[in-house]
Design goal:
mainly alpha; 0% strand
């Protein structure tokens, strides 16, 4: 199952896909919200 999703983003590490997507998606909305608030 993780094989088709892994090569889509990171063919090197299947587990790294989730780790890379999580931190990247989190700072984006957080920074946008903070900029608007500040």
């Amino acid at each position: 199952m993780p094989a088709p999703a892994a090569p889509s983003t990171a063919p090197t590490v299947p587990g790294g896909v989730t780790t890379t997507v999580t931190p990247r998606a989190q700072p984006v909305p957080m920074a946008a919200s903070g900029s608007n608030r500040w």
